[in-house]
Design goal:
Blueprint (H helix, E strand, L loop, with lengths): L6 E6 L2 E8 H17 L6 H42 L1
Antiparallel strand pairs: 1-2
C-alpha cells in the first residue's frame, strides 16, 4: 500500500501557478494567515458591551412576554375545546 501525502497546487492572482505545495507549507501558510487576521481583531469597549447586553436583555424580556401571551391564548382555546368535547 503506497503512502499518500496531502499536496495542493498554489493559486496566485493570475491563476494557477503550477507549484505543488506539501502539507507543511500549507500549514505554515495557514498559521501565518491566522496570525495576520488575529492582529486585526479588537475587543469591544465596556460601553459597547453594556449597550449590547442591555439590548439582549430587553429583547429576551419582550420575547418572553410575547410567548407567554401566545401560550395563554392557545391554552385558553384548547381548554375550551376539551370542555366542549367533554359536554358533547
Amino acid at each position: 500500500m503506497a503512502s499518500r501525502t496531502a499536496t495542493a497546487v498554489t493559486v496566485d492572482a493570475k491563476g494557477v501557478s503550477g507549484k505543488v505545495v506539501g502539507w507543511w507549507d500549507q500549514s505554515k501558510s495557514f498559521l501565518s494567515d491566522v496570525r495576520t487576521e488575529m492582529r486585526k481583531v479588537t475587543s469591544p469597549s465596556l460601553k459597547e458591551v453594556q449597550a449590547t447586553t442591555g439590548v439582549v436583555i430587553v429583547t429576551v424580556a419582550l420575547f418572553a412576554i410575547y410567548f407567554y401571551g401566545v401560550d395563554r391564548v392557545i391554552g385558553f382555546f384548547i381548554d375550551n375545546l376539551f370542555q366542549w368535547a367533554k359536554k358533547a
